[in-house]
TrEMBL record:
The organism of origin for this protein: Sesamum alatum
Keywords: NADP, Oxidoreductase
Descriptive protein name: Tropinone reductase 1
One Gene Ontology MF term: oxidoreductase activity, acting on the CH-OH group of donors, NAD or NADP as acceptor
UniProt superkingdom: Eukaryota
Pfam families, sorted: adh_short
Family stated for the protein in its record: Belongs to the short-chain dehydrogenases/reductases (SDR) family.
């Protein structure tokens, strides 16, 4: 085979899921639905589950009509026994081998910490943490047997920064972030990679209208405006990243949280320092144009630390926020992604 042809065929293999098997939990709606389609579109045979059998059957028919290879069964992931049955069925369907496990299904609750009941806390931890942890344990022999295993968790920016009125959900997602690192280290020897995708707001129906307190939702509006792209994401914008992490092309990526770190610089209050780099210097020069009345150089250099970082002081933060809003309004979306 000519060298050029060889490299094309190797590229095609690196960017394909042909012949691979995948389990995506909660694939009938929202982000899970998009992930099923994305993985199937790359050639994987996918198994999915949800609690609503009628809806699941409808989805399976839709996917069959689209030419995707998708199977599924009803399962309430909050039940330990049903999780065990699910993995037995998946094992039988895929001959004891699984390449991809996407732990997507979860529940959310927007409530102030003082209003969470014991039952709220229990349901969240059971669905969002205990269930994916147990599914990983059950799927481990299957992932190992495939010799090319991949776990992707769907976490949330809430697991990294303190968003309003979402404490129990946030704690469950923070635990998932840590689990990602532990499993990545424990199971790399078995050729299993483990990563997490952590979006901010995505257009789905995870929150039921009757559970939404408008005064809490209002608190999210300015936060959303302060993200670099300053809009809610579509499920397909999350599923593409999940698919990438599952591809052989991502074979050296494990224990990571793409889509999380540094993507929300303006709302990362725990980020004490900004490193001075070329991008920051360019942005500061631009800020000077947008806010000519402000002596940005003085403001920044006043807070320069001896090691060349800038103190993350609130005046700078507020200025940056105004600047982001101004640039979003005047110059389109997706600004300062690299700060
Ligand atoms: N939407 C966002 O803004 C956002 C932001 C960051 C992270 N996330 C994360 O993204 C993931 C997907 O969320 P989404 O917004 O796509 O949610 P969604 O639209 O509510 O879909 C959730 C899916 O999971 C299934 N599911 C829920 N609980 C289940 C259970 N106990 N057993 C089996 N299946 C269950 C649902 O089907 P049934 O209800 O029929 O069982 C559905 O198919 C979650 O991990 C969520 O935390 C979402």
């Amino acid at each position: 085979m000519a060298k050029e042809e060889q490299s094309r065929s190797s590229r095609e293999q690196r960017w394909s899921l042909q012949g691979m098997t995948a389990l995506v939990t909660g694939g009938t709606k929202g982000i899970g639905y998009a992930i099923v389609e994305e993985l199937a579109g790359f050639g994987a045979t996918v198994y999915t589950c949800s609690r609503n059998q009628a809806e699941l059957s409808e989805r399976l028919k839709e996917w069959e009509d689209k030419g995707f290879k998708v199977k599924g069964s009803a399962c309430d992931l909050s039940s330990r026994q049903q999780r065990e049955e699910l993995i037995k069925t998946v094992s039988a369907a895929f001959d004891g081998k699984l390449n991809i496990l996407v732990n997507n299904a979860a529940m959310s609750l927007l409530k102030r910490a003082s209003d969470h009941s014991g039952e709220d806390y229990r349901r969240i931890m059971e669905t969002n943490l205990e269930s994916p942890y147990h599914i990983c344990q059950l799927a481990y022999p299957l992932l190992k047997a495939s010799r090319l295993g991949n776990i992707v968790f769907i976490s949330s920016v809430a697991g990294r920064i303190a968003l309003p009125a979402i404490s129990a959900y946030a704690a469950s997602k923070a635990a998932i972030n840590q689990l990602t690192k532990n499993l990545a280290c424990e199971w790399a020897k078995d050729n299993i990679r483990t990563n997490t995708v952590a979006p901010f707001g995505v257009r789905t129906n995870i929150l039921k209208p009757e559970d939404i307190d408008p005064s809490i939702v209002e608190m999210y509006m300015p936060l959303m405006a302060r993200t670099p792209i300053a809009r809610i994401a579509e499920p397909e914008e999350v599923s593409s990243l999940v698919a990438f992490l599952c591809l052989p092309a991502a074979s050296y990526i494990t224990g990571q949280f793409p889509g999380q770190s540094r993507r929300y610089p303006v709302v990362e209050y725990d980020n004490t320092y900004l490193t001075v780099n070329d991008n920051l210097v360019k942005e500061l020069a631009y800020m000077k144009e947008v806010f000519p009345e402000c002596d940005i150089a003085r403001l920044v250099y006043r807070h320069l630390t001896p090691n060349g970082n800038i103190s993350w002081v609130s005046c700078f933060q507020h200025l940056l926020h105004d600047y982001v809003t101004a640039r979003n309004n005047n110059f389109g979306p997706n600004i300062i992604p690299t700060l």
